[in-house]
Design a protein that fits this description.
2 domains, Chitinase A, domain 3, Helix Hairpins, 3 helices, elongated, 158 residues, 7 strands, alpha/beta, two-stranded parallel ribbon
Length: 158
């Protein structure tokens, strides 16, 4: 059984989502199905079919989350604070060497990545390129829009 690297925050978010699905959404969809059944003919009942579809999604997501949580390898980022180079869990400040734009990302597991929240997957091209780099190192990545070069300006473990 392959372990899934995860930060404490990612693990906790998955646990909260699982709790929400089991204690709120699952009972609500069961109730919606029961109410739709009371309306009679199920073959033309759109509410019934929509509720069954939602139930299928919820049950699938519950199974997926239970599997990921059972295989989670929660990495305590605070213990990595002595590292000067970039590893899993590091929060990294970068400057685009062409545009001078500044960005900050935390390197996280694939399942908790959300670029809009600054959570960059360690398996992404940029995530892989950052591993073992230090402050003042340059990182070059090929993107669909061309080559991008970033300078590492900050490495923090929090």
């Amino acid at each position: 059984m392959e372990k899934i690297p995860m930060t404490r925050g990612g693990y906790d978010r998955m646990g909260e989502e699982l709790k929400e699905l089991k204690s709120v959404q699952r009972p609500a969809v069961i109730k919606a199905i029961a109410e739709a059944r009371e309306q009679g003919d199920l073959s033309e009942n759109a509410e019934y079919h929509a509720a069954r579809e939602k139930q299928s999604f919820i049950e699938g997501r519950i199974s997926e989350l239970e599997d990921k949580i059972s295989r989670a390898d929660v990495i305590d980022v605070a213990h990595l604070a002595a590292n000067k180079d970039i590893k899993f869990g590091a929060t990294v400040g970068l400057i685009d060497e062409d545009t001078e734009d500044k960005v900050t990302y935390q390197l996280v597991g694939q399942d908790e990545a959300d670029i809009k929240k600054g959570l960059l997957s360690i398996t992404s091209p940029l995530g892989r390129a950052l591993i073992n780099k230090k402050v003042k190192d340059s990182v070059e990545i090929n993107t669909p829009g061309g080559t991008k070069v970033y300078e590492v300006v900050k490495v923090v473990y929090k």
